[in-house]
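Example record used in the benchmark description.
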Amino acid sequence: MKSNRNMLLAVACLALAALSCQAFSNLVGTGATATNVPDGQSPQSGDALLQDDFSSTGWGTGTDSDSSVEYVDGKLQMVVNTKNWFVWSTPNDQDYQNVHMEVTAFNNDTDPTTAFGIMCNQQTVDDSFYYFAITPAGQYAIAEASLAASDVFLTNEDKWEYSDLIKKNVESYRIGADCANGTLTLYVEGQQVASVQDDTYNSGGVALFVWSGEEATSANISFDDFLMTSLP
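Model output (structure tokens):
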């Protein structure tokens, strides 16, 4: 992953690029609240495929010395206790394609270098995926993570960038992401922050993640009101 020396953001290594780093936790859920499409029909644009207010369990949870992902006060809370650690949780083991996702991320006084957001098109064989990340400091990236290779930031010439659309250190952020047949788009508070083209992966699993900074004193984010809909 890429480093921003000014922010000391957690970008030195993701275990997908070097498994020996052991710098990640992956928690698979047993099934979040789904909206089923009738048999024999394909999802239509705008159909809700998955929605969850985290009032009941379903996403992957677990706690160890490095991180904790648990249901707390009607939200999915991720706390990271180790510097430069990437943890994610999935609602199920299903593959999706051509979707729009939204989630509200609550900033629990987390370190401003903490990155968090949405993953899509996760591959079951090698855990490659796309991720849409923002930080309380106002930075963002859309990236591709691949096994045994450095992450590729598809935005801003392979670098982190600031956006005036991402308010600094506010209580919560409404994050959106399109994984749309080769088009990847990041939204914050309903406004488009960035959009790129990449068709390496066209379907796969989805997840929410938190990533602690290299010198972070805390990484603590809670997620609520997840929604995934089909795109045209």
